[in-house]
Input
Amino acid sequence: MRFAALAALLVGGCMAPAVQVPELASSQIAPDFASYTLRRVGLLPFTGEGLSGEESRHLQASFFAEASTVAPFEIVPLDPSDVAEIPTSDPYRRGVYKPRTIIDVARRFNLDAVFIGTVTDRNLFSPPRIGMQLDMVASETGMVIWNSAVYLDGSQQQVRKNVEIWAGVGQSDLESIDWRLCLLSPRRFAQFATYHLATQLAE
Output
């Protein structure tokens, strides 16, 4: 889903490749998005039921690598130790964020907003499956002002074709690797998902 207000604020991204990777994620912005000043946005470690620390860090690093090429603001990855004492909100289950969570993070790192990512569904076996949600929460109000979601099922032909394109147009480090390996590696498939979340920042 495209939003003109967000597109007008996002400049300086990389030039698009000759072959575009079809979008599989969706995104939304708040009506007052343009009223927020975004200079530094924190990126918390991803969370999700059964997600290991290593998997959480990999998702965080993957999204950071992709989003940093299109976002006009600085993205600040936060280590688990940086937020260990900050109460968790469990927003996917509760539907809200505890104000203290956002305020504590923002004050500590001088952030205008915080990215909070959640793995909502996944299957590590073939065919792979993963669902992810990413919220941008404003430090000023504690409200979600942008969010993106993606659900990828490796058994679907559309997804498999998309992986093949993604692996061959310079969007990843997989040019010399058979794209089918992405469907056998949970780590690669998760990287594919974070790519789609990040592309929504350029919409």
Summary: The chain has one domain: 4-11+18-202. Confidence is low (pLDDT under 50) at residues 1-19.
